[in-house]
Write a structure and sequence with these properties.
It is built from seven helices and five strands. Strand 4 and strand 5 form a beta hairpin. Helix 6 packs across helix 7. The chain is elongated. The termini are far apart.
Length: about 170
């Protein structure tokens, strides 16, 4: 690979790092052709981009990036694949599910919304991260709860003002 080609690859990687808030680094070495094809298919279905990268070029792209990757460049040894996703926990769920049949992929590290996770032992923590949509759903549920209490109080009070006040005071 010429110096110009390397510079182009670094520029492309730097752009990908800038465009994605959720970046996973994994080791998929040792997977046979069928398992690799299955992994790529699962990534496609889950809307996860998977790409094998050269460690030295990715390290230079991380240096050139505006993001703070912390200790993440230190995991760039051996075989490295990058996974990009809109949803922070989607690659972790995919990796965990895929490992029911295989010992790979192994999580090397992840950059999730400016937080850095190093090592495969963080896989369960990453699976449990809630997506933006899940958090919004939880907030809406919490906001609706008091309104439901008021409505049920109004219904159980029999429509009489004294009954309604009594029911609502008991709920406090």
């Amino acid at each position: 690979m010429t110096r110009e080609e390397k510079a182009t690859v670094i520029e492309d990687l730097t752009a990908q790092l800038a465009e994605n808030a959720n970046i996973y680094l994994a080791d998929i070495s040792g997977l046979d052709a069928v398992a690799t094809s299955n992994l790529r298919r699962a990534c496609f279905k889950a809307n996860i981009k998977l790409a094998v990268v050269k460690n030295t070029l990715l390290a230079k792209a991380m240096e050139a990036s505006d993001k703070e990757f912390g200790e993440l460049p230190e995991v760039l040894k051996g075989n490295t694949s990058m996974m990009f996703s809109e949803t922070g926990n989607a690659p972790a769920k995919l990796i965990k599910n895929f490992r029911k049949k295989s010992d790979k992929p192994v999580l090397k590290g992840a950059f999730i919304e400016e937080a850095v996770y190093i090592g495969d032992e963080n896989l369960d923590a990453l699976v449990n991260i809630k997506s933006k949509e899940e958090v919004i759903g939880d907030i809406i549920g919490l906001l609706q709860s008091p309104a439901k209490n008021v409505i049920s109080g109004l219904k159980s009070g029999g429509g009489k003002l004294a009954g309604i006040l009594k029911t609502l005071s008991e709920k406090e």
